[in-house]
Amino acid sequence: MTYTVELQPGVKRQIERLSLPNRRRLDAVLQKLAQNPRHRGVRRVKAKPGTLRDRFGNHRVLFTVDDERHVVTVTRVAIRDKAY
């Protein structure tokens, strides 16, 4: 079952700041999340209950999963140091 990936409004601005190669990597990560939001490599964020993270390069994608509606909501895309 595939999931719908939704971006919060602030995330769109964060994505615009990424370089073109990082945008392509992010696109691959978002496609992977749509297929399986809990694939290998996804970890829980201890400081934020219910939030998961995936990585690409030095960047992190923070997101939540609603299994009933089959929706992945991306809440933040940032460099690792500033993501948490």
Helices and strands, with pairings:
Layout: E1 4-7, H1 9-16, H2 20-35, E2 43-44, E3 52-56, E4 59-66, E5 71-79, H3 80-83
Parallel strand pairs: 1-5
Antiparallel strand pairs: 2-3, 3-4, 4-5
Features:
84 residues; alpha+beta; YaeB-like fold; five-stranded mixed sheet
Concise description?
This protein is 33% helix and 33% strand.
What's the count of strands? 5
N- to C-terminal separation? 30 Å
Top-tier CATH class: Alpha Beta
The CATH architecture can be named as 2-Layer Sandwich
Mean pLDDT: 94
Beta-strand fraction estimate:
25-35%
Query: Unreliable segments (pLDDT under 50, ≥5 consecutive)?
Result: none
Helix % is: 25-40%
Instruction: Classify the oligomer.
Output: single chain
Q: Globular, elongated, flat, extended or rod-shaped: what is the shape?
A: globular
The CATH homologous superfamily: RelE-like
Q: With helices defined by DSSP (H or I, 4 residues minimum), what is the helix count?
A: 3
The sequence of SSEs as H and E is EHHEEEEH
Give the strand line-up of the largest sheet.
1-5-4-3-2
Structure description:
This protein has 84 residues and is α+β, with helices and mostly antiparallel strands. The protein has one domain: YaeB-like fold. 33% of the residues lie in helices and 33% in strands. It has 3 helices and 5 strands, in the order βααββββα. The protein has a 5-stranded mixed sheet. Strand 4 and strand 5 form a beta hairpin. The chain is globular. The termini are far apart. The mean pLDDT is 94.
